[in-house]
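Records of this kind hold a single protein each, on a pair of labelled lines. With that in mind, the following record should read easily:
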Amino acid sequence: MKILVVIEHDNKNIKQPSFSTITAANEIDSNVEAIILGKDLDKTLDSLKKSNGLKKIYAVDSEIFENPIAENLSLTISKFIDGKSFTHILSPSSTFGKNMSPKLSALLDVQQISDITKVINNETFERPIYAGNAIAKVKSNDPTKVITVRSTCFEPVKLDSNVEIEKLSLNVDKNSSINFVKYDQSKSDRPELTSAKIIISGGRGMQNGDNFKLLEGIADKLGAAMGASRAAVDAGFVPNDWQVGQTGKIVAPDLYIAVGISGAIQHIAGIKDSKYIACINKDEEAPIFNFSDYGLVGDLFDVLPKLEENL
């Protein structure tokens, strides 16, 4: 077997889910290689080449990959693997992977296996369905298996190796029907949701967007990222990229603090891999208490100032 991991990055830093995807690949087989496509990759490669669990790294450096357009990425990867004996192609189950992998599987005429949480063997994997209420065991007989990995279920690899890098000179194909227009990226001094060790999230109980300021002081003292439930996002309290849950970002911090969140199953599906879950809610019957390690029944507008004062 020969496994290829497609690396997610921003042309500066490797995204944390890629390191977890390498771990998942090694649970299939130890013969794991990686490919990274981008522009001016020298700095990015410095951290990637230290990854344990990789035999080799292929780098494709081109202006076409300054922005990660899935159509261009999938075309180039399919050209790269043509004639090679890769049995599995893995990428993180992030926006990057969810966008690129279906296009690659279509080009290869194979079925994609999405969002795996466990490797049974080289053909069989587990993945959640019905908002995490059930786990499906999926077996694929395709010669090449295109897989996205739920990174929160696999520990990131250690960074203490020195992996060989081969820079490729491919005739990169650009999809003429797709053009990059712009990328609106929110900027914050706080950690990213998907890599944060501590996350504090607000829900509909925050009542409005201004009240999310009550979470900011706590987040700053804890060095935490800030998130929100879908109800809070749909109500316009906070931006879409704060959303945590099945239809938002899947997270697995050391500590997840849910404030004014009732605990709908779609939200729980996105946080259930957290090491510890704590919640604050004035409704003692709220479902969130059933999933929390620590719970406090109280009015968040009374509790939060006292919590910040005592941190």
About this structure: Residues 3-167 form a domain with the Rossmann fold fold (CATH 3.40.50.620). The first helix runs from residue 16 to 28. The chain has two domains: 3-167, 198-310.
